[in-house]
Every structure is written in C-alpha cells, then in structure tokens.
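dude i think i finally got it to work??
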Amino acid sequence: MPHICHKMGRFGLLRHISSLPSPRTCCLHQRVFTGSHPCYQNTVLGHSCQHSRGVSTALSQHIHDLSGPEQRLLTKLFDGLIGGQRASLAESITLVETQHPRKKELAQVLLQRVLAYRIEQESRNGGKPVAFRVGLSGPPGAGKSSFIEVVGKMLTGRGHKVSVLAVDPSSCTTGGSLLGDKTRMTELSRDMNAFIRPSPTSGTLGGVTRTTNEAIVLCEGAGYDIVLVETVGVGQSEFAVADMVDMFVLLIPPAGGDELQGIKRGIIERADLVVVTKSDGDLVVPARRIQTEYTSALKLLRRQSKSWNPKVIRASSYNSEGIPEVWAKMESYRDAMLASGELQGRRRAQQKVWMWSLIQETVLCHFQNHPSVREALPQLEEKVTNGAISPGLAADLLLKGFSSSSS
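look at this
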C-alpha cells in the first residue's frame, strides 16, 4: 500500500504530545498569523494558547521554524478562508490532501488555527455547532449527484451556504479518478453560495478520503453552514462517512431489484433517513413499495438515538417533488438532536474515532517502513506465496521482529 506510507509525517506528532510547553513554541502560531483577520485575534490570545497548549506545543516542536514564504502562505490562506474566498478554501483543501511531508505539517498548522476559530464561533453561538454536516450514500445509479444539486440549489435559494465534498473511487490499476460528480452539478457549481470539491479515494476504504474530515473543518471555517458529503458505493465497508457527519442519509433507487440486497444490515442501521429517489413517472408505484418495505424493516432495528426514529421518504430530483419534505425531515432531526445534546456528543465521539483511525494508518506505515520488517518481508512473502508457511505465521514472525527491535 504505497499511498499509506506517506503518512509518517503525523507519527512525529505523537513523540511530542507529552512534552512540556515552552514560551517560544507556544507562540509559534501567533507569529504565523500576526496581522490576520481581526475576528481571529481574540481566539489566538485567548482560547488557543490555553485550551490547546499541549497540541500547539507538539505541533510547533515538530515543525521547528517556518520560513517567511511559509508564514505568508498560511496567513494568506487563513485570511482568505475565513473571509469566504472559494479559491482560498480550494487551495487549503489541496494543502490538506497533499502527500508532501513538509506541506502536511503546514496543513496541520492551518487546521489548528481554523479549529480554534471554529470553537470561538461555536462559543458565540451558545455552544451549538455553526454548521450541519450531512453524509449521503447509496448504490451507483441512485441519483446522488442529481439529488445533491436539487437540494443544494433549494438551500442556497433560502440563504444558506452549501459545500459539497464529492468522493470518487480511484482505479485499482492506474490510481486515477474521473472526478466527474462536479460535471453533473452544472447549476450548483455556478452558484456563488456553493462550493463543490471532488476528491479521489486513493485506495482508502470507507467511501471517503482520509482527509475528508479535515476538509469538513475547512469548509465550516469558510462560513459554509451546510456541508454535504457524497460517498462512493455502498456496503459493509462504505459507511465510514457516518463517523464524521451529524446525519447519515441513505439514497436508494425504486427499481434496484436484487441490487438492493447489496445494502447490508450494517449500513441500514447507520441511516438516520432513507430517501427513495426517482419517485416519478412509472417508478412511483415501485417507489411506494420500497418505501413501505424499508419502513417496516427499520422498525425491527435497534434505535441509535433516543430522540429520533429513522424515517423513509420518497423524492424526485426530476420534478423536485418531495425535496422540501426531505429537508424538513433533516431540520427536524437537527433540532431534536441539538435539543437533547446528542448531536454535540456524537461529534465528540467522532473525533475520537477519527483519531484512532489515523493512528492505525500511521502505525501500519511505521511497521511497513521498519528496517527489520523490510529486511524479512520479501522472503516471508515468497514463502507465503509458495505455501511453505501460513499467512498467520508470517504475520506473527514480522510482528515479533518489529516488537523486539523496537523495544
């Protein structure tokens, strides 16, 4: 997995988490963003160096010093980002998605500043999130892109700012992606109150990229109050998006036949809302039947929330029937979860889940690059291929060699 091995930059952060803060490193980010947006100055002087002192210290020690051009770049990106400039947001997401070690470090500095700015905004909002995150998944051909365009245009017409993070699958052979979702959203892509960002999975499981969670943070920092995350495919491994959004919406076509059997129980259990798409013309009757079947099926599943029962609703992107009702259900969900405090708790739990996900990826890369493992790996792979030893025994030998040489 070559793409994983670029993540070693994060591993260096772990070595410094327990270090004591020093006056020099605590103020690194203040120096980076001196003279930046006035709304941010209180955040830097107040919350950032008190609440996140340990993280800032670790990050600062990992980066050492920023050059003049790097400081100017981060200042320009941050000012443009919180000023609502779409070009700055796009450039910031590109910085987060990069595999270049030094640029990944710069991206973490930028993310810490945006996080502090977002926390300041939430404190002014009574502790409530300033944005609503919605994840959308479904089988190919369910009409996800068409649905997002219709919903997005309706929301921008109501005064919302909408960002769409569309994830496209990467080829297993060439590593490339079509990134064609944006071409299906022609009207929304021209809307100045909307931002669409297609990204490749680059081999990451779960239907999202490993940087999608960070891109969500950047979109919220740029003032987008609705963040829609469109994922690829559907199945047992394709609902990682549910661990980074406030609401998970499953889109299903009305005449999928046996293809619907590919949607296993795991993803149904995670759905907060099921939308039967393409409910128009000759497909109205099949759509009603599917709606009835899924409504009955959801009653048999254990409830995820004490404040919300998952709903099944029909909609058509072709004639916009049912689209306002879908958004009304989403608003009802958000209000119920906010009133009970479950939404805030869900976000806190998601941060922990995502941290451990990144730790697993980073530790795997560290394991693959360890000298003892790299030395023994070719011979053991050959023995496993020839059937001389079992894969389990080979894994145990590699782990023992890794543990003994690391201790």
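The chain has three domains: 54-127, 129-340, 354-404.
im so relieved honestly
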